[in-house]
Design brief:
alpha/beta, Isopropylmalate Dehydrogenase, ten-stranded mixed β-sheet
Length: 332
Amino acid sequence: MRIACLPGDGVGGEVMQEAVRALAIVLPEATTEEHLLGAVAIDARGDPLPPETLQACRDADAVLMGAVGSDRYTWTDDNNPEDGMFRLRHELDVYANLRPSTGPGIDLLIVRELVGGLYFGQRGVDPDGTVWDRLEYHPSQIERLVRRGFELARTRSGRLTSVDKANVLATSRLWRSIVDEVAGDYPDVDVRHLLIDTAGMRLVENPAEFDVLVTENTFGDILSDVAAALSGGIGVAASACIGDGRVGLFEPVHGTAPDLAGRGIANPTAMILSAALMLRYGLDRPAEAIALERAVEAAQLECPTADAGGTATTSEFGDHVVSLLRRGQVAA
């Protein structure tokens, strides 16, 4: 079993190290190998996603990825760190982004379409200065994402909320019609539609009413960060990017945190929880995923880092997780 590790930039390498240490306890048969992605890859290879990194990801059983980005590059540069991340998602065709949010009064899963829509559409500037971005979806892109949402809802409470803007957007009207069509194959799942503005309001007011939400790329980007804020913030949020292929991509939601890089104080929670999602959704090892999640939950209470009101360093938090796993106190 091979896991390609892409630390990325900023604190990526520091938090990745703790996730790899924890994985070595729960999945000793796996091998991990690091490859360049992002600004460090541009610096070393002139490409944010070097060919050897892409090939290593294709050959792996799963990919664990850190945040990418650097203030030495801007989003408008032709060759920027974020381009490497977007290209990797597209090349692996990991079209479903899973963002779980749990905590007091919240236990939901957002299933976001990840490789289509506004972020991947054509864009340009007209001679008169008008700037435009094209939002488009093919029915097949919507159907595969929606079907994945229904399958996941079956493993939870059997409730699915589809979020769109069908009162305004043609793409959303297509989205809603496909959800209704696919729903016929899942009579055991309770389905409802919400407009994005209503969904955002109700997510804040009463997150307990939601279980699985399916939505397009841009809406999912926004809603998942709102949900993360309700359950500890994006600093501790994990995500899974999966498709129909063999290889999934698993990454924390937080950024590169350059102000923390090299200081040994970054919270590795999100990276370790991303490794747990990798175990569950990428490697079919649910018992090991549960053990890792329970170890992180215990460490958050017993050995918090500074951002959570404690004094633990990155490695001390990782030490605590590893110790709990070795003692078998958090087994599934």
